[in-house]
Specification:
The protein is of the alpha/beta class. The protein is 35% helix and 25% strand. The chain has a single domain (6-218), classed as 3-Layer(aba) Sandwich (Rossmann fold). It has helices at residues 45-52, 73-82, 99-109, 114-127, 143-155, 173-185, 197-203, and strands at 6-13, 22-29, 34-38, 60-65, 68-69, 83-86, 161-165, 189-193, 206-211, 214-218.
């Protein structure tokens, strides 16, 4: 049987001296599955993503990713190259002057030549219906366009895992339909945070709910 791409065991995390957001939480992600991560606002869903990407560190428990235990910052460098995190707020993800530069940034950091990174950016934008947007100034985009540009920046790195935090935020119905079709056709394992139950029903192969610091399977 294949090994999980991520295995989190006994994860505990708290901000400052507050009560733990996560308390002895367990979670595994397997190749080919799409997991819907649900739960009330403030339950810690985004925190879980940030722990998986190494942006935060648990006070207890073990994070195993891609077959290795990850503890220190350098352990997570390889994780971030293989697991693409779509932030809840697109403005946290887009920081270059133009869309093309934002989308090419990841491939360049992975060692692609400038020409190769440019082609990857163009192809990725086209696949999301943003052909011709490469020269646009990022801060002039609409909310939905920023969302797709941020997703393009993630997909351009060709990750093995997608961690998608509210991917349908700010999207109109037509754009959401296009995004749903795109995500359904992607081979990567995915974890999706969303309050849009219809969207999750179309994509998820299983559901887990985070509440009171623990994760439990939903029917």
């Amino acid at each position: 049987m294949n090994a999980p791409l991520f295995r989190l065991t006994g994860i505990t995390f708290a901000y400052d001296r507050q009560a733990p957001v996560l308390e002895r939480a367990d979670f595994s992600l397997w190749p080919g599955e799409t997991v819907a991560l649900t739960g009330p606002n403030g339950a810690g869903k985004t925190t879980l993503f940030h722990l998986m990407a190494g942006l935060l560190r648990p006070s207890a428990g073990t994070i195993e990713a891609f077959g290795a235990v990850r503890r220190r910052e350098r352990d997570f460098h390889a994780v971030r190259a293989r697991a693409g995190l779509l932030f809840q707020d697109s403005d946290d993800q887009l920081f270059c002057p133009t869309v093309a530069e934002d989308v090419a940034f990841g491939p360049l950091n992975l060692g692609k030549s400038p020409e190769h990174a440019r082609r990857i950016a163009e192809n990725t934008l086209e696949s999301l219906g943003l052909a011709g947007f490469g020269g646009r100034v990022t801060h002039t985009l609409s909310g939905g366009q920023k969302r797709l540009a941020a997703l393009a920046a993630v997909l351009a790195m060709e990750p093995e895992v997608l961690l998608l935090d509210e991917p349908t935020n700010a999207l109109d119905a037509e754009t959401q339909e296009r995004l749903t079709s795109i995500l359904a056709g992607l081979p990567q394992a995915k974890v999706i945070i969303s309050h849009d139950d219809a969207f999750l029903r179309r994509l998820a192969t299983r559901r887990v709910r985070l509440e009171r610091g623990r994760l439990a399977a939903e029917p």
